[in-house]
Amino acid sequence: MTLRHILSLTTLLTLITCVTDPNHRVAADESSAKIQTEFSDAPNERSASADKEIYVPKSEKELRRSLTRIQFDVTQNESTEPAFRNKYWNNKDKGEYTCIVCGQKLFTSDTKFKSGTGWPSFYAPADNKNVGYKTDNYLFYTRTEVHCSRCNAHLGHVFDDGPKPTGKRYCMNSASMNFVEKKSSKLNEDKAPADSPSESK
């Protein structure tokens, strides 16, 4: 008997066993079902990666082209803009403050307060994950530097002399941020239309 005949006989016996032996058939069905489940439960990595926003850092040339000189010096070289002579120190409008480099949301007007320092100050970021920190040794004392967690743009420093509820003062540079004003959706229902006809008696 040749090897081919032996293999054919083995295959035939296996098929007969699957048909006649219910336990063998159930085990085979369970194995097949398990494999199908594993494939169906596997995450769609392509879809997940497509949905995740990927930030591509700008080159120095691109940054210099898109930012003003003071914006570049502050965000990239950790410079500090002049107090009381910056864009948002006295801004009282409602809205959001986003990173001037990458657009990530950093602060909102809800946590902005008057600090008297001449720089826009907040007692909390919009989201703790959106800012990062590092120790900054300056003129023989230690400060905590604050930067955008997405692009590492320098924002300013945080101090422990702020108001409640956090006790923090995020002293930021206007040059590091862009302000997006909140549009009011409230309708003035008390104001009657100008061409409203008067009711005749």
Automatic annotation (TrEMBL):
Which residues lie within the region annotated Disordered? 182-201
GO cellular component terms, alphabetically, are: cytoplasm
Catalytic activity as recorded in UniProt: L-methionyl-[protein] + [thioredoxin]-disulfide + H2O = L-methionyl-(R)-S-oxide-[protein] + [thioredoxin]-dithiol
What Gene3D superfamilies would the database entry show?
A: Peptide methionine sulfoxide reductase
The UniProt keywords, alphabetically, are: Metal-binding, Oxidoreductase, Zinc
Q: Write down the SUPFAM superfamilies for this protein, in alphabetical order.
A: Mss4-like
What are the GO MF terms of this UniProt record? metal ion binding; peptide-methionine (R)-S-oxide reductase activity
Note whether Methyltransferase occurs among the keywords: no
Coiled-coil intervals in this record?
A: none
Residue ranges of every copy of the MsrB domain listed in the record = 60-182
Give the family from UniProt: Belongs to the MsrB Met sulfoxide reductase family.
Its name, as the record gives it, is peptide-methionine (R)-S-oxide reductase
Species of origin reads: Rubripirellula reticaptiva
Q: What is the lineage of its organism?
A: Bacteria, Pseudomonadati, Planctomycetota, Planctomycetia, Pirellulales
